[in-house]
Write a structure and sequence with these properties.
Layout lengths: L11 E2 L6 E2 L3 E3 L15 H9 L6 E8 L19 H12 L4 E7 L16 E2 L14 E2 L2 H21 L3 E6 L4 H6 L14 H4 L1 H14 L7 E6 L11 H11 L6 E4 L18 H9 L5 E4 L5 H8 L5 E4 L1 H5 L3 H6 L10 E2 L3 H4 L3 H9 L6 E2 L1
Amino acid sequence: MNSNFKNLLAPFTFPISGIEVSNRIVLAPMTTFSGNDDGTTTDAEVAYYKERNLSAGLLITACAYVIKHGKGFHGQVGADTDELIPSLKRIAEALKANGNKAVLQIYHGGRMSPPEELVDGQSVSASAVAAEREGAQVPREMTESEIEETIVAFGEATRRAIAAGFDGVEIHGANTYLLQQFFSPHSNRRTDKWGGNLIKRMTFPLAVVDAVKQAAGLASHPFLVGYRISPEEMENPGITMEDTLQLVEALSHKQLDYLHVSVMDFWASSMRDKQDTAARAQLIAAKVGHILPVIGVGGFHTPEDAEKVLALGIPLVAMGRELLMDPHWLTKVKENAVDKIETELDINAQDALKIPNPLWQGLVLRTGWMPMKK
C-alpha cells in the first residue's frame, strides 16, 4: 500500500448512516446517454460501470429521472416505475461487485428537459421562464398537484433504489435542473408557498429532501442520502453565494450524509464577484462542514491534487474524467504505480475502457474537455 497518499487511501465513515467507504475518492456522476428508450439500462452501460467498480470507494451513477416529465437526456435510465427495479439492480450489482458503495443519483430536468424526450413535448418548471440559452423552450409552470406529485416521485425513486440494492441516493439539486430552478430567483417567479422570498424558494428542495429521507428510513440496512448543489448562477436575478449558504444551513439540519458541491474547478473564484477568490466548497465547508460532510469536485487530476484538497478538511474528492481515462487510477495509486496512470484518453481504447458508443462519441467530439491520445 502506498504510504505517500495516506489521506486519500484512508477509510471514511458517514456520520449519519454509519456507512464506511474504504477511501476518499468518489466516482463522480457522469451521464452515459446509453440507456434504452424505455428507461432500462443496457449491457454496454452495465459493462461500463463494472469496469469502474474499483475506481472509488463511493460510486455515483448517472442521474435517473424520477418521473416522466423530468427526463433530461436521450439514453437516460429511469427510476419512475417498479418495472425498472430489475434494471436498476443490474447497475447496483455491477458497481458493488468488488465491495464498494453504490449511490443512485435521482433527478428531474425541469426546464432543461429537451421537448423531444417528453411525452407531450412540453417541459415544466417552477415558473414559465425559459433558460437563458439559444433555442430554450419556455416551460409550463407546474401546478400545485404536479409539485406534490414530483415530491412523492423522489421518495418513490428512493424506495426503488433500496429495492435494487443501492447503498444510497444522491438528490440532484445542481446544474440548473428542477430543484435548483425552484431555488433560483431567475426561474422561480411564483407568489404562492413555493416561491417568492428566499425561504419560500427553499420549500420545494427541502420537501424533496424530507420525502427522500422518509423513504430511506424504511430501508432494512444503512442507507445514504446526499445532495448535490451548484453554489451560484450567472443570471440576474440568480443564485448568489449568500443564498446558497442559507440553503446549506437548512440542509445541515436534515440529517443528510453529504453535500456534493458541483463546480468545474474546485479552486475557481466566484462567477458573480471576481473579488471573491475563495473556493466555493471551502466556503460551504466552513459554514456546515462540521455537521454535513462536503464532497469536493472539479479539476483534480493527480493523487497530489486530491491530497491537497483533503488537507483542507474536505473529507471526500470526486473525480470524473480521470476515471473515464483510467478506471484503474485508484489501484495504481495503491500499488505505488502512479507513473502508469493514463492522463490522456486513448482514441483506440474504447473497447478496453468499456465506454458505450453514445458516451464515446460525445467524448471524442469534446476534444477540448479532456486530453486525447491518438
